[in-house]
Amino acid sequence: MLVIHDPSALPQDGCTFVPTMGALHSGHLELISAANINELPVVVSVFVNPTQFAPDEDFDAYPRTLDADVELARQAGTDVVFAPTVEDVYAEAMDDIPLPMVATEPKLEDATRPTHFQGVCNVVARLFQFTKPTHAFFGEKDYQQLKVIEAMVSKEERFEGIAICAVPTARGEDGVALSSRNAYLSDEERAQAQAVVKALPLGCENEMRAALLDAGLDVDYAVIRDAETLLAPVEGRSRRALIAARAGTTRLIDNGALP
Ligand code: AMP
Q1: I need a surface site. Which of 75, 126, 195, 230 has the fewest CB within 10 A?
Q2: Angle, CA 23 vertex, CA 199 and CA 45 arms, to 5°
Q3: CA of 31 to the centre of ligand 1 (A)
């Protein structure tokens, strides 16, 4: 397995690609296993992208564990870990990627983190340009992000030929979705986080919110939406429950399909 820092040293004949911000856990490793679909190399990026963090967010404190990430990535079937510098990723000017509706209209992550998806789309576009993937793997854990990337890729000619592959959310034994930010949780907050998992299948927004408040969480949103547009649910179409809530200073997000 190779560790490459310089974008120009990446293989140029196609790959299957897993973008991450590192601090790899079993959720990331499931994406890497899923990316082993053919003979093309599996490229995993480890890049904490400053442009998707707001000034009051945890960019500086975000866990950075490259040596451990490299070893975990290798064991999970990675051919190349791509760990570029901020300067290299943003060396060339590129216009902002036009944001699809699902990034701006649902008032979910877009309401609490208004600059977040522009940062995500811009960095994913750059990473796609460097890595030239045929397939890119994203977790359902970040469900709005998955829908934003699917829409971005389907709208823009430059991304033609890239298949976006979704991987189900990996969870701990207590059901809490694995997240690099779980490292911040105290024991008490970890127990509170279980309320998020229990609230998802309730099927009623008021009950979801009440369950989260009962557990002492601060609720950003607790909603039931159309599974594709993330707007109000439509009779006869799939629905998704989505929650963002804070346990102490840690923001938890999770989601689940509803029958
Ligand atoms: P991150 O490093 O948090 O930016 O995540 C990198 C990728 O891993 C994203 O596509 C996430 O949705 C995905 N991911 C993170 N946590 C999980 C999880 N618990 N289960 C599945 N995918 C995940």
Answers
A1: 75
A2: 110
A3: 8
